[in-house]
């Protein structure tokens, strides 16, 4: 066996036996509280046959499973650890098989399949049980042949009201019914909902879905009529020889006869009354002291708590304009998002004059203006990389929130933190910080630049929130015997979120993109490090400390974007995030800054997460990649030195409860180098200019104890970091990223997890092993080196790792 490998055949066999035992336990199922004289459903299976595309097969299989009668579904209740139990199974009734076949057939008809075939078989298996009597288990199988999927041919609009017909024809490009696409009732209902939204946004306040319907052509539509005799279906199909292989259907949107003429009358906004500072305890008819008219809105108020012009600019229902349902909801959402009000109520009342009018009353109930949160925290730091021993940390945090600064719903947050670490010299570390953030509920820019930002509504997207953020932070760290480091940070940035107003795929109403953006044009960070003689001596012994501990100035611009999309009725979620930060491109042209403390670099990273949710389990995948290009210079005692690495507070790192869990935080890499693995530097933090990482988890439920969900997971982490490192004046090639060395440099860890879910937070205990350690890249590429039962790494985390 290769030197350094600690895996024996006995160990491997023992682990395999444990894994096999766990699989057997996981698949075992006990039956409780059953009638030994009656058969009960034990397993129901649906076999889907036909030429349905693979992706559609999975989705269709799930939908068909949901159509099975409840009395035939097997509901397993998780017991302690891996055991599952079937409790109180119902008595089997063959009539429920017929009911299920009807439900399945109706579903297939609604999805556009005609002449589907559903066959069923079942058998009873008797299992002996000495304690509770024999079990008569019923196994049921449905074999489903969906048939040929019908596709849309022509789509037309024939509404009797000219204005409604004109609106429908004008919006045809946005129709959810496209020629050649598969037919389904859900698509037709989605198109009716789309038209209804257009009409209500155009002033037709009382128009409802009952006023329109979709008419299918009589011949082909009969083919998917579940009440039609099968022989009649065959006759109709023969009459359509050209559509035998590729049947199509025509859809026409029509208008039902009117029962109330008000449904097709256009409503306009009448009077708009606003009560900006109501109390929850006030009567339905509030008593106010003052009134004013601003921009056509009538205000009734008790105090000068809010600036009335500010409120008026956020009300989009202008008197005299046509009613818009979209603007109605936008008013409610806007005032809810501002945060200065705890409750928002907007009511409409019909009034008929020369034209139909809607009088609006906006009632705003202010939230508490100030709130103060005080948090106390403790921590334990064992053998950090500057010293040996155990330290206990005590921290006190204060947060003061103002929800209505300057009477314009501007939020300010003031945070203060004071902490100490108690060690050898009683107080080993002293930390203090003070920050103040101001959140303006709008984009503050000159008008010619403001047009660059997305407006409230563009096409089928809308902006949920736009705000400007100002940050001011000062911090001070005093590490006794090593350094003192005052630091300052300030930034000015913008945040906004966009969301589509309708689904791009009508078969899935929840499928939409939500996009969030953060642009920080100006970000300034400065750390002034004052070293002690003790730290300078350590720098001589460990050259890496010269990089880790130094002054740093960052003058950067940051842009990040996050997009999230839901699929399959929340069963799948995809999140994509990208971020780019540039420092020193402009200010680095000043020589005194370029050769001084200013750090010049471009840092780019991206992340993709994909979640697949099931009833009792889920899959989670994450891919992350980041790289930095450093091009700064430093004047060191008259010698111009080119910078090769990021400042330590901007660098990439791996390990810990949220990254490569088989390694401690900042203990992996760089690459497959061993420059940090000597006996006196094993505790040095490791940083990189590049990082690649891939994580996968299979999460599953175990049981529930006293209301606390006990879950688990099996996971694998793959990745590493890379940087430019020098030893004795020579570059270390194993530390730099090279595609030819990727297989050697990559690290792989795997393990399992125990998770206690308290709903509002989750405690996670991960236990991971280093299956491939690049530290031993010269020995079988690092596979299975120094592995035994006790060599795993325990990680404690809060929440999911990704």
From TrEMBL:
Record's keyword terms, sorted: Cell outer membrane, Membrane, Signal, Transmembrane
Record keyword Repeat present: no
Domain Bacterial surface antigen (D15), residue spans: 596-801
InterPro entries membership: Bac_surfAg_D15, D15-like
Main location: membrane
Listed GO CC annotations: outer membrane
Compartment(s) of residence: Membrane
Pfam families: Omp85 (PF01103)
Name of this chain's protein: Bacterial surface antigen (D15) domain-containing protein
Species lineage: Bacteria, Pseudomonadati, Bacteroidota, Chitinophagia, Chitinophagales
